[in-house]
Every structure is written in structure tokens, then in C-alpha cells.
Amino acid sequence: MRTITLINGDGIGPEISDAVVKIIDASGLKIDWEIQTAGADVIEKEGTPLPKRVIDSVKKNKIALKAPVTTPIGKGFRSVNVQLRKDLDLYANLRPCKNLPNVKTRFENVDLVVVRENTEDLYAGIERMADCDTAESIKIITRNASERICKFAFDYAVKNGRNEVCVVTKANIMKMSDGLFLESYRKIAENYPQIQKREILVDNLCMQLVQDPTKFDVLVLPNLYGDIVSDLTAGLIGGLGVAQGANIGENCAVFEPVHGSAPDIKGQNKANPTALLLSAVEMLRYIGENFHAEKIEKALFKTLSQNIKTVDLGGSASTSEFTGKIIENLK
Ligand code: NAI
After folding, report:
1. Disulfide engineering: 247 pairs with which of 65, 90, 101, 284, CB 3.0-4.6 Å?
2. 17 CB near ligand 1 (under 6 Å)
3. How many whole angstroms separate alpha carbon 112 and alpha carbon 96?
4. If residue 112 lies in a helix (H) or strand (E), which one and from where to where?
5. Stretch 35-63: mean pLDDT, rounded?
6. Structure pTM?
7. Does ligand 1 come within 6 angstroms of the Cβ of 241?
């Protein structure tokens, strides 16, 4: 039996983790879940929001499924999510974005993939007060990390039959940092004559995405633009409740939804487990459990097609009703 680390998060994390574990179990796939807690709730007992045992568990098992963990805004501890990606060198954040059956949105045939650099940029969190009225934040972009993520995006495109990799920057203004990212893209792109190239500024991208997202295929972006654009693309397919993701490194991978811990609906049996479930489906494909991945995805699609949806998608099903129906549809 395969052992997988499960970071069940906080906010809606435990509710949606519970739903996903039940669905995977009902599919007939036996997984030994190594449950690891992290975040504000463990600080008092262990002195840190991200204890070493969590990192050790992912390193040992090489795979984790992760629900969201709350980060305090403006003060308090550093993001557990950012720290985890850094400690495990999960340099590629993959966020596929595709229409789901019977989830009505403004556009049909959206099928794009956001590849976000995951380790540096303004997300490095290097900030200081230069004086009491001036805050500074340093944007770090390295050649190594930029070439590595661009190579990941092109390899992903080749492996998954994609036609184009488009690089997204603001290199007209940040000529050095975003300029280096763009230069790295151009260098790596030369090795992939079979893939079409495209360069776009992030503001123009946002405008074009909301006008016609079907014009885009694979997007590769530095960390902060990737963060923002992938919430935008989540909105194109039905919102954060359905947007899946994965953080991938050389040695391990952590699969997690795009959304956060949604404290506004915590404990109300209202959260949509789809984003975490689709992240888990990709995780199963990643470890070669294709049969169970297809089976679960089919049951999810059938449930949506039967118009059983959670509130965020305009339905009235609770988390547990939605989960129960998916389990029924596995049969
Ligand atoms: P959020 O993604 O938690 O919520 C934004 C809105 O989307 C809320 O109205 C929420 O109810 C809704 N929503 C999100 N997921 C949903 C789901 N599965 N089903 C139904 N509705 C859903 O973003 P917010 O409020 O900005 O962040 C809350 C906390 O989560 C913050 O502390 C933030 O730092 C953290 N966060 C953690 C992430 C992670 O663990 N990877 C990623 C993003 C945010």
C-alpha cells in the first residue's frame, strides 16, 4: 500500500480533506495517509507553524496532498505554503484550467495551463522599513530559477501535446528582473522548435484573458504574476472551488488546490471539495494510478452533469451531500 502525506490544513481544509479521502477510499484504492498538521493551531505546542516532521514526511513519501493553510495578513508568521515550497524546492507550480461539465461560465473551451515559478520573485518576502514611512520589498529573479521553470513549461508542453508556450512579464518596466526572466525563456525556447513561442506583458494578458481565454495554451510566469493570473483563470472556469494545482520539484510533489482556507465558510458544510479532488486526481496520475484517477474524475463529472453542485457553483448541495453523490457515482 502506498503511503502519502496528507496535510489537512485549517479553515475548510479538514472538511474537504475528509471528503477527498472518503472518495478515494470508496474508489477501491487503498492509501496509507500519513496525516500531518501545520499552521496556527500547532504553534503553541510545537513552537512553529511548519514543524520539521511535516517536511520529513513529504521527503520520505515523495508525494503529498495538501489542503489550504491560513496565513495571517500584514503580521504574524510567514506563509506555511511558501515555506513548504521553498524547503522542498518545489519550483514549479502547475495550475491547469479547463471547463468542467455543466459548470456554466462566460466562455466555453477554456483549456490552458498556468506554470508559475514557485521559489523567488517578490514572494521571497525580503522586506524592510527603509524609514518609518517607507517600505521596501526586493524582487529576486535568478537565471537558474528562470531557466528551470521555462524548461519545465516547454517539457510539459511537449509531454502533454500542447502547441504553444507564452511567457508573461512586465519586462518593459522591470527591465532587469523581468528582463532576465524573458531572456531565460528565449534561450530555453531555442531547444523546442516544435512548440510555438509568444511573449506578452502581464497587463495585456489580463485584458486578453477576460476577452477570449481560448487564445491561450501554456503560460509561464514569475511567481507573483502567476499567483494573480491563476486566480483570474480560476474565475474563467467557475471559481476557486474548482481550480486544481500542484507544486512539483525534482524529488517530491505536493498537490494542492489554488484556493485558500476560506474562513468565511469554515465549518458550515458548504465548501466545494472539487479543487482538492481534482488535485488528488492529478496526484494519482502522477503516481501511475491512472485507473482510479479516471474512475474518480468520471464520477465527479457525472455528479456535476446530474446538476448536483455546491453553493459556489449555484447549486444547493452541502459538502457531504456532494461527496455522497460522487461516491454513489463511483459504482
Ligand atoms: P480563499 O481562497 O480562502 O477564499 C476566497 C473566496 O473563495 C472566499 O469567498 C471563499 O469562501 C471562496 N472559496 C475558496 N475556496 C472555496 C471552496 N473550496 N468552496 C467554496 N468556496 C470557496 O482566499 P482568501 O480568503 O484570500 O484567503 C484565506 C486564507 O487562505 C488566507 O490566510 C490566505 O493566506 C490563505 N491561502 C492559503 C493558500 C494555500 O494554503 N495554498 C492559498 C491561498 C490563500
Report:
1. 90
2. no
3. 6
4. strand 111-117
5. 93
6. 0.93
7. yes
Q: State the Cα–Cα distance between residues 120 and 140, nearest whole angstrom.
A: 6
Ligand 1 mean position to 12 CA, how many Å?
A: 9
Q: How far is the CA of 262 from the centre of ligand 1 (A)?
A: 4
Rounded distance from Cα 81 to ligand 1 centre (Å): 13
What size, in residues, is the chain? Answer: 331
CATH 3.40.718.10 in the chain is located at 1-96+242-331, 106-236
From 54, 259, 264, the mutation candidate for ligand 1 (largest count of ligand atoms within 8 A of CB) is 259
Kindly report the protein residue whose alpha carbon is nearest to atom 38 of ligand 1: 260
What's the 259 CA to ligand 1 centre distance in angstroms? Answer: 4
Q: Which CATH superfamily is domain 1-96+242-331 in?
A: Isopropylmalate Dehydrogenase (3.40.718.10)
- 322/261 Cα distance (integer angstroms): 19
In degrees and rounded to multiples of 5, residue 114 shows phi and psi of -95, 125
3-class DSSP assignment, residue 325: helix
Q: Whose CA is nearest to atom 24 of ligand 1?
A: 260
- The domain 106-236 having CATH identifier 3.50.30.10: the answer here is no
C-alpha cell at 241: 472551488
Closest CA to 270 of 309, 296, 236, 300: 309
pLDDT tens digits along 58-117: 999 999 999 999 988 888 888 899 899 989 999 999 999 999 999 999 999 999 999 999
Q: What is the pLDDT of residues 268-311, one digit of tens each?
A: 999 999 999 999 999 999 999 999 999 999 999 999 999 999 99
